[in-house]
Amino acid sequence: MSMERRTPLDRRRVADTALRLLNETGLEGLTLRAIARELDVKAPALYWHFKDKQALLDEMATEMYRRMVAGTPLDPADTWRERLLRTNRGLRASLLGYRDGARVFSGSRFTGAEHAEQMEDTLRLLTAAGLTLAQAARASTTAYLFTLGFVTEEQGVQPLPGERREGFDVDERARLMAAYPLTAAAGAEIFTDYERHFEEALALVITGIGTAYGLD
């Protein structure tokens, strides 16, 4: 009989394994059975920790957030603009670290209160700048939803950095849409250089928030 002691199975270990597998299989291929096989346990053992796949996705999103916060320290000297830039750049970078990262994150429910500290600090900064709590919540949520949507579309073209999905050849698209010259030319502005486009669009969102609410 083997006397080797196994690392105890807990929610965080399962989520960590699932995030590693996600880059290999994508969201569609990520099953509880595959995760159990990787952990060398029977699939029913996972149901002690997660009632279904959505519960697992919630924990995966929470673990992604823990890692994002650890890698994106807040600066108490931030202006409200700098804070929205910092947190949304950090969110995008974190999501891009996983195949289908934005899809996992979207619609998931955090399983802990880790997000509350950063959220509290951001809302405090926005209300100190002159916004009501409702406006502050709307401003931070708008920037967050923009980033989440942007990365969802970005990963639809580039599942991982440096990997391009078949069917998104800009030159071929331009050839097929030659009868619509503006639309054809716009392909290069939609499906390439995501870093530049994200920065430009996030700046537009933040400028719009400032203009709408009369912030400096």
Account of the 3D structure:
67% of the residues lie in helices and 0% in strands. The longest helix has 25 residues, at 133-157. Helix 3 packs across helix 4, helix 6 (114-128) packs across helix 7 (133-157) and helix 7 (133-157) packs antiparallel against helix 10 (194-213). The chain has 10 helices and no strands. It is an all-alpha fold and 216 residues long. Residues 1-5 have low confidence and may be disordered. The protein has helices at 11-29, 32-39, 53-71, 80-95, 101-105, 114-128, 133-157, 170-176, 181-190, 194-213.
Round the mean pLDDT to the nearest integer and report it.
Answer: 91
The secondary-structure element order is: HHHHHHHHHH
Shape: flat
Q: Indicate the percent of residues in helices.
A: 55-70%
Largest sheet: none
Low-confidence stretches: 1-5
β-strand amount: under 5%
Total helical segments = 10
Rg (CA only): 21 Å
Number of strands: 0
Distance between the termini: 70 Å
Category by helix and strand content: mainly alpha
Question: Would you summarize the structure shown here?
Answer:
This protein is mainly α and 216 residues long.
Topology:
Elements: H1 11-29, H2 32-39, H3 53-71, H4 80-95, H5 101-105, H6 114-128, H7 133-157, H8 170-176, H9 181-190, H10 194-213
Helix pairs in contact: 1-2, 1-3, 3-4, 4-7, 4-10, 6-7, 7-10, 8-9
Feature tags:
mainly alpha, 10 helices, 0% strand
